[in-house]
Amino acid sequence: MVQSEGDIMDATMKSQTSCHRLTLLVKRILAFIVTSLVSLTLDLDGLRPEAHIMIQYQLRQVLPERKVDPSAALALLCSSAAAIVVWKWLVKRQIQKKMEKARRTQNEGLKKMAKAVQQFREQVPSVQTDAILSLPLLELAGRLQEGSLSPKTVLYTYLEKALEVTQQTNCLQHFIPECEEQLQEIQQQREKGLLYGIPISIKDHIGHKGHLSTCGLVQRLGTVVQEDSVLVKVLKRQGAIPFAMTNVPQSLFNYDCSNPVFGQTLNPFNHQKSPGGSSGGEGALIAGGGSILGIGSDIGGSIRLPSSFCGLCGLKPTAERLSLSGASGPVSGILAVPCALGPMARDVDSLALCMKALLCQEMFQLDPTVPPIPFNEEVYSSSAPLRVGYYDTDGYFPLPPCMRRAVRETRDALQAAGHQVNCCKIPRLGKKLLALILKPLFPRLADYLSALGGTRSVKEMWNHHHQIEVYRTEFIAQWRKLQLDVVLCPVLGPAFTIGYPGKLLTAISSTMLYNVLNFPAGVVPVSTVTEADEEELKLYQGCCDDPWDQMLKQAVAGAVGLPVAVQCVALPWQEELCLRFMKEVETLSREKRAA
Asked: pTM of this prediction?
C-alpha cells in the first residue's frame, strides 16, 4: 500500500515530537544525575529540598536544546547510572577508611600506653596498685600534696586500670599521650594546685589540643582540636593530668553509648546493660575503677543518667557556672535548653573538690562570660537542718518501682535525721512546650508531641521561649511559697538493657526538666535493685499501660544488684547547697547500708 504525502508528513511530525520528548526526558535525567553527583561531592544532603530544585532548574537552563539519538541517550544514561553507583561506593569506601584509620589510631594508642605501663612496672615493681585505687579522691589528693605518693605512681596505676576496664567495656576512645608531658610540667610548678597529680578523664567533645572531638560522628574524624578548652586549661593549671578521652553516643543526643566509629560501651556491672549517656564512657570508666574523676556534659541528663546507671555521683551545674568555651557539639544555637559541663566521681566530696578547683580566678579570666563566683565552702560544710521538698513522680513518665522506693526511703532517712521534709507537686510542663524544647534534640519524639502543637513562625518560636520563662518563674514561685532549700526527686534507672534508650526518649523527663529550668541537679546512689523490686516491676503499668510503659518494663528487667539512685536539686547558682544536700543523702544511705 502506498502512503500519501500527508501520512508521511504526519509520521515525520510524530517522530520529531517523540524525539523532542526524549530530549527533554534525557535533559531532566541528566540534570538529576549531575545534581546527585554534586550532592555527593559537596555534601548537599543538609540543604532544604528547595535548594535541590533550584539546582535542577539551573542545570536545565544550561543544557543545550538539541536532538538526541535514542541509542546514544540510552548509552549515556546507563553510563551515568553506573558512574553514580561507583561514586557512591567510593564515598562509602572513603568513610570506611576514615573509620578504620580512627580505630587503628585508637588501638595504637592503647598499645603505646600498655607499653609505657609495662616499662613503669619494670622500674617500680613494688607499687601497691589496689591500695592506691581504693583511696577516695580527697585522701589521694592529700597524699599527693604531702609527697607520700608520687604523681607518676598514681598516673601509671590508673593507666593500667583504665586499660583493663576499656578492654572489658570499650569505654575509651583514646589515651592522651601528652599526659606524660603534663606529669613533668606539674612537678616544675611553684605551687601545687588543688588537683595536683590527679589523673582525670574527659568526655570526647571537651576539647584537648592535638586530639579529635568527634561527638561520635564520622564527619568529624578529620578535625583535630587546635587549642585546649578552658576547662582543660584550668584543670592543668590546678595540677590535674588529663589522660583519656571517653566514648559517647553518635551525635551525643542519646542516653545509650554507641557510635559507628568506636562501637558500643558496656555497663561494667552487667555487660547486657547500657552505661547510660551521653557521658557513658565516663560512667563506665569511673565505675570500673579506671578513673577517679571525670568531666562530662549534660543537656538532657547526660551526666545524671550515666551516674544513675553506673552507681556514681554526678553534678549538672547551672549552665553558665563552668565555662563551655572549647567544648564542641553537633548542633549549635540551642537556646531553650542550655548545655552544662560538670564532674562525675565515686563520692560527693570528689565533686565538691573538683568544683572548688574549677571555680578559680584562672577560669574567670580565661572566660569572662562565666560569673566570677568562687566556691562557697561555708555553704557546703554547713550542718544546719534543711527544708526539703520531695516528689516520686513528675506525672509525665512514672519510673520503675525501685526508683520511687529510693525516694521514699531517702525521705524517711532525712526526716529521721532532723530535716523538714514535705511533699510538693511540680507545675506541669505542657506537651506543646515540651515538643518545642525537644524538637532540635529528639525529632522523633517531637513529631509525636507536635500532634498537639508546634511552631510555624519566628514569632511563635519567641512565644514558646517566653512560655519557658513563664514556666520557670512559676516553678520558682511555688518553690518559694513552700519555703524550700532543696528538692528530692527520682532519676531514671536502673540501667537499661542495651538498645532500649533510643526507643524510650520520653523517659528522660525526670532529668530534662532541670535542663529546661537550668537548675543545678545531682545524682547520688542510695540502694540496689532487689528481688522484691523485680517482682513489683511485673505489676508496673505506668500511667497508661501503653507500649511505652510496657517497653520500660522490658528495658529495666533483669537488674537485680544494679545501682538505684535519687536526684537532688537546688535553685540556680546554688551548686554548693545542692552538693551539701547530696552529701547528706550519701551519708545517710551509707549509714543505712552499714547498719
From this structure: 0.85
d(CA 235, CA 136): 19
Q: Active site includes 325?
A: no
**587, 308, 272, 594 alpha-carbon torsion, rounded to 10°:** 10
| Beta-sheet strands, E only, within 75-194 | 172-175
Q: Which residue is it, cell 568531666?
A: 295
- Rounded to whole angstroms, how far apart are CA atoms 479 and 428? 14
DSSP 426: P
503 classed as catalytic = no
**pLDDT tens digits, residue range 20-62?**
655 555 555 555 555 555 454 444 344 445 555 655 555 455 4
Parallel, antiparallel, or unpaired for β 263-264 and 387-390?
A: unpaired
User: Backbone phi, then psi, for 528, in 5-degree steps?
Assistant: -135, 160
Q: How many CB atoms lie within 10 A of CB 556?
A: 29
Other beta carbons within 10 Å of 434:
22
Q: Where are the beta strands (DSSP E) in 494-570?
A: 521-528, 563-569
DSSP for 442-511? -HHHHHHHGGG----SHHHHHHHHHHHHHHHHHHHHHHHHTT-SEEEEE---SPPBTT-GGG-GGGGHHH
Catalytic residue among 203, 316, 356, 583: 203
Instruction: Answer yes or no: are the C-beta atoms of 348 and 524 closer than 8 Å.
Output: yes
Q: Is 203 a catalytic residue?
A: yes
Cα–Cα distance list, 117 to 50, 112, 264 (Å):
57, 9, 26
CA distance 393 to 378: 32
